[in-house]
C-alpha cells in the first residue's frame, strides 16, 4: 500500500457483502448499496491535528464500522479506498 | 459482544415496549415508533476525544434514556444496535 | 425518583398553572400551553462536561424558569419530566 | 425581588417611554414598541460559565442598553422582566 | 457623554459627508447612505471578554473605519450613536 | 499613508492588469474584474487578536495573493484600498 | 517558483491524467474533470496559525491527494496552481 494518510486520517477499504456475512454483521436496509464496514489499510501518524493531540487507536487490519458519507473516495490500482479521519470510525469489530 | 466502540462512544440496544413497561417508563406520543430507552451493551475507553479528556460514566448493563436521532444504527447477528457518544445519553434509569 | 441525569443535566417537572399562580409568577401569552416554570427533581453530578468543569448550582426542590423548547421530555410512572442542561435553566424563583 | 438568575444572567425591567425621556435617551424608530433601555433588578453570581470565568460588571439599579431580541421574558406579580446574559448588555447609561 | 460601554465595546458617532471630505476620505458607492467612518466617543474597559483578555487599542477622539451593519444604533440627546465591539473597528485614520 | 489597521489587519491596494503581467502572474477567468493580487500598503500591529497571539508576517511593499470577497473596500484620496485580516492573504509573490 | 505561501498553506500543481496513470492512481468517476492528485511546489513556514502550532509535514515534490473544491486557483507563467491549507491534503502517495 503506498497511500500515506496525513495527521489523524486513515485509509479504509470497504468490505464486500459476503465478507460481512462471514463476520456476522449485517447492516440494515440499503446496506448493500452503502456499506459501512471496512478494513483499515493505512493509518496516519496522528500527532497534533488542528491544535489537538491525537493518538491513533486504529491499526492496519482492524475491521471497523464508519460513518457513511464521511471521507473521500479514491481508486488505486483498480481498488476503491476511502480516506477519512479516525474520529469518523465508530467502532472496531472483533 | 464483539463491537468495541472507539473513544467516547457506547453501543446500546433499544428496549422493547414491554421491557419499558416493566421498568415503569412510558415515553410520550409516538414512543413505540421512536423508543428512547435502551440498555448499554458496550462502552468505549474514553480518554482524549477531540482534544478533551472524557471519563466514561456508563457501564455495560445500564438502562439509559438517549437523544432520539442521535447515533448510527447497525445490525449484528440479527439484532439492531445504536452507536452513539456518551454525551448523547441523557440519563440512567434505576 | 429513579432517573439519574448524566453530566450537567437536570430533570425537572413542569409546574401546573395553579401552582404558578400561588407563587406569584404568571408567564405571558401562551404560558398555559408552554409553561416555563418547573421544579427540579434530579440533578446530575456535574464534573467535566464537554471538556469544561461544570459545578452544579441547582438542587432538588428548586423552582426554576427554563428556556422553552430546551431539553427532552420523558414520561415516568404517568408523570411528564424534562431532561435538560443546567445552562438551559435561566433563574431560580424563591 | 425573588428571581435569582443563574451564572452570568441578569434580570432587567424595561423602562417606559416617559422614563427614557427623563434621562435624555430617545431610541430611534420603533423604539416605543421595542424598548432597548432597562433597569437591572437582579444579577447572577457569575463565576465559571460555559468554561469561562465571568466577572459580573453590572449591579442592581444600573440603567442599561441591551440587544433587542436578546433574552427571555417573564411576568412576575404583574410586571414584565427580561432574563438575559450580561454579554447582551451593551452599555450602562449614567 | 454618559454612555459607558461594557467589556470590549466602543461608542462611535458617524462622521457627516463634509467631515469625511475634509479628512480626505471618500467611501465608495452608497457611502452617503451607509457611512463607515466615525469618531470614537466612549471606550469600554476591556478585560476578560468571552473568556479572552482584550486590551483596548482605541481612545476617545480616534477617527475610525468600521464594518457597516456592525453594532447597535441608539439616539442620545438628539444625536445618533453606534455601540459595537472593538473588533468591528477596521482601522484608525490619522 | 494614514490608515492604521487594527490588530491583525492589513491594508492592500489591488494591482492593475498591466502590473500583474509585468510580474508574470495572470489570474484565471474573470481576473480583470476580480483581481486577487495586491500590494501591501499598511500592516496592523498584530498582538492578541480574538484571544490568540498573532505575529504579522507581512510588511509594506509585499506583493500578495488574497482571497477574493475577503475584506472591506475603502477609498482614500481617490485610490481604492481593501482592509482585510492577514489570514485572508494566501501567499507572497516574489 | 516564486509564490511563497503564508502560514500552513501549500501550493500544489494538479497532475495530468497521464501522470496519474503512471503512478497507478485512477480517481473515480469525473476524475478527469476534477483531478484530486497533485504535486507540492511550495510549502508555507507553518508556525502558529489561528492560535494553533502547525508543523508542516509536506515537502516540495510530494505527490498528494487533496480535497476537491478546497483552495484557491491562480495562474502563474501559464501554469495553474492551487493554494490550500495543509489540512486539506488527505494523503501522500509514494
From TrEMBL, chains A, B, C, D, E, F, G:
Together with the chaperonin GroEL, plays an essential role in assisting protein folding. The GroEL-GroES system forms a nano-cage that allows encapsulation of the non-native substrate proteins and provides a physical environment optimized to promote and accelerate protein folding. GroES binds to the apical surface of the GroEL ring, thereby capping the opening of the GroEL channel. Belongs to the GroES chaperonin family. PROSITE patterns: CHAPERONINS_CPN10. Keywords: Chaperone, Cytoplasm. InterPro entries: Chaperonin_GroES, Chaperonin_GroES_sf, Chaprnonin_Cpn10_CS, GroES-like_sf. The lineage of its organism: Bacteria, Bacillati, Bacillota, Clostridia, Peptostreptococcales. It is found in: Cytoplasm. SMART domains: Cpn10 (SM00883). The keyword Repeat does not apply. It comes from Serpentinicella alkaliphila. PANTHER family: 10 KDA HEAT SHOCK PROTEIN, CO-CHAPERONIN GROES. Heptamer of 7 subunits arranged in a ring. Interacts with the chaperonin GroEL. Pfam families: Cpn10. GO terms for molecular function: ATP binding; metal ion binding; protein folding chaperone; protein-folding chaperone binding; unfolded protein binding. SUPFAM superfamilies: GroES-like. GO terms for cellular component: cytoplasm. Its main location: cytoplasm. This is Co-chaperonin GroES.
Amino acid at each position: 500500500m503506498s497511500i500515506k494518510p496525513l495527521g489523524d486520517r486513515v485509509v479504509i477499504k470497504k468490505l464486500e457483502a459476503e465478507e460481512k456475512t462471514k463476520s456476522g454483521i449485517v447492516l440494515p436496509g440499503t446496506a448493500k448499496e452503502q456499506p459501512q464496514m471496512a478494513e483499515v489499510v493505512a493509518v496516519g501518524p496522528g500527532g497534533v491535528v488542528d491544535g489537538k493531540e491525537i493518538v491513533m487507536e486504529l491499526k492496519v487490519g482492524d475491521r471497523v464500522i464508519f460513518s457513511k458519507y464521511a471521507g473521500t473516495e479514491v481508486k488505486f490500482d483498480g481498488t476503491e479506498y476511502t480516506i477519512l479521519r479516525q474520529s469518523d470510525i465508530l467502532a472496531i469489530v472483533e
